[in-house]
Amino acid sequence: MSGAELNGKPITLADLRDGIDAIDDHIHDLLMQRAELVEKVGEVKGASAAQAVYYRPEREAQIHRRIEARHHGPLPIEAVHRIYREIISASLNMEKQLTVAYLGPEATFTHQAAIKQFGSSFHMYAQPTIDAVFHEVEVGRVNFGVAPVENSNEGAVTHTLDRFVDSPLIVCGEILLPVQHNLLSRRDSLSDVKRIYGHRRALADCHQWLDAHLPHVERVESESTAAAALKARDEEGAAAIAGEYAADSMSLNLLAEHIEDRAGQENRFLVVGRIPPKPSGDDKTSIMVSFQDHPGFLHKVLGLFAERGINLTRIESRPSQTRTWDYLFFIDCEGHQDDPRVAEALQALADLPGVTEKILGSYPKRAL
Prior knowledge:
The protein is of the alpha+beta class. The protein contains 12 helices and 17 strands. It has a domain at 182-256: 3-Layer(aba) Sandwich (D-Maltodextrin-Binding Protein, domain 2), CATH 3.40.190.10.
């Protein structure tokens, strides 16, 4: 094909549209074939075990990695991931309707993270606190929970870490969400904005942009991104710092995008549940450790991983809340707890005198 010709003949717009329609029909046929196979998977699961596992994060991760490895062409890989996430989401919920609790309200970054992980076919329920997210999963009212755990610049969300101390839940997945702040409003122009609402962190993340473009406009803290967006929707002349999802869900105009002062920030969220994922081939393991306060003991603990060539991706200390100046250490390492090297390191750690170890879970490493 050269220019607007195919096989030496001119191509019209009608020809191109006919070609797209034919491909759309083929895609639809293939989706129905895939759905038929999914139905059979559900039948096999239903017949094979009383406690069938419907959501397998390691299987989903493998699908995305395989698609990315063979990807080529003009469609961005991020768009392909979103398409397949919705296909997988709809397929899973053909087998069984699955549910997710998340730190709400609707249109927060945690809500956006939950949609990124599970797609739009899962039933999602906003919760007022991180405690409530964990509780809904613990009592079995929902299948999974999503809670924030870390910001790449500001560090840990300590309440989520503390909740693991007494919870029987495990980490089933992680979600990485780029920090993208936008200015949203019912108005069409920056000059019409009289007040800006935003979460404390969002206002801090965008203060340089606000100083440069709207220096005299009042800034008001909101309890959440969603609350700020509601103010922008309901109050004349108001704008909000929020994500794109809030613009779509509340019918707000995008006055400015990427107004964050520092590029490259990410929020990390954890998926909590009850069923441990199997190895996916590229995993992380999270553990919680406490030990006696002796010189060099932390060095000894970390050395167990270094000796086996296991990379530690994160270490965070938190007060144990049992004794003054007593600490818990939260450690993330590369690899699955069933991998021989990781299993060996975890066993060596458990065998150290005075050590208490709790494996919080192994799950696919999220790089999408």
